[in-house]
Design brief:
Layout (H helix, E strand, L loop, with lengths): L6 E6 L3 H10 L5 E6 L11 H15 L4 E10 L10 H7 L1 H8 L7 E12 L2 E14 L15 E3 L11 H7 L1 H18 L2
Parallel strand pairs: 1-2, 1-3
Antiparallel strand pairs: 3-4, 4-5, 5-6
Helix pairs in contact: 1-6, 5-6
Bound molecules: inosine 5'-triphosphate (ITT).
The site of inosine 5'-triphosphate has 22 residues, from strand 3 and helix 3.
Length: about 190
């Protein structure tokens, strides 16, 4: 049987949950995903794409190999998009309980998760991919799986939080699975034509 030759791509992240989710989406692709710890400080900007683009430029300056970098965040309607690019800081400070308290009197519980994934190689940014998943913020913390704001995010069309889903279930609908899925399609074509 022919062995599938895999191309190695390095994901620059300190978040192993992200790595697992992205690797899971790429499992049956021609990509062998590895993690690399070269992500420096992030800039502050409203869109995850701007934050990811700056991170990618920083990485491209010091890394010649093929890489991916992803920035993501939770945008809550009634808080004008907060925490958005501050998601990591807000998670570490007020946490999921703090978010529930912040919006407990708001009727509108709508929120979106955004993911921006950037691919680079040979010291250059090549292409970006964006994924958005809409949902609502739950009134209580539910589930133990996943990470970050998963225990308070109920994707539209479901009655459970991301934290009550397996990685396979979350990966059918998540913002990160959408950006990664788009990347997988593009890179597969690129490798097939190489
Ligand atoms: P790296 O920058 O090292 O990749 P990070 O966790 O700091 O890891 P971000 O800067 O993209 O990642 O911050 C995104 C934060 O938004 C993350 O720490 C979570 O709190 C939250 N978040 C993003 N995607 C999420 C998801 O799928 N489920 C739950 N929370 C998520």
């Amino acid at each position: 049987m022919l062995e599938l030759t895999k191309s190695t791509i390095y994901l620059a992240t300190n978040n192993m949950n992200k790595f697992e989710e992205i690797r899971n989406v790429l499992e049956n692709s021609k990509i062998n995903l590895r993690v690399i710890n070269i992500k420096g400080n992030e800039i502050q900007a409203f869109s995850v794409l701007s934050v990811a683009r700056q991170s990618a430029l920083n990485i491209a300056e010091k890394f010649e190999g093929a890489f991916l970098v992803e920035d993501s965040g939770l945008y809550i309607d009634s808080l004008y998009g907060f925490p958005g690019p501050y998601s990591s800081f807000v998670y570490k400070t007020i946490g999921v309980g703090g978010i529930i308290r912040l919006i407990k009197d708001r009727e509108n519980k709508n929120a979106e998760f955004h993911s921006a994934l950037i691919y680079g190689e040979n010291g250059k940014i090549i292409k970006n991919f964006v994924g958005i998943t809409e949902g609502t913020i739950s009134t209580s913390i539910k589930g133990e799986k996943g990470f970050g704001f998963d225990p308070i995010f109920i994707p539209n069309g479901y009655n459970k939080t991301f934290a009550e889903m397996t990685i396979m279930e979350k990966n059918k609908i998540s913002h990160r699975a959408k950006s990664t899925g788009a990347f997988a399609q593009w890179i597969t074509k690129k490798l097939d034509n190489a």
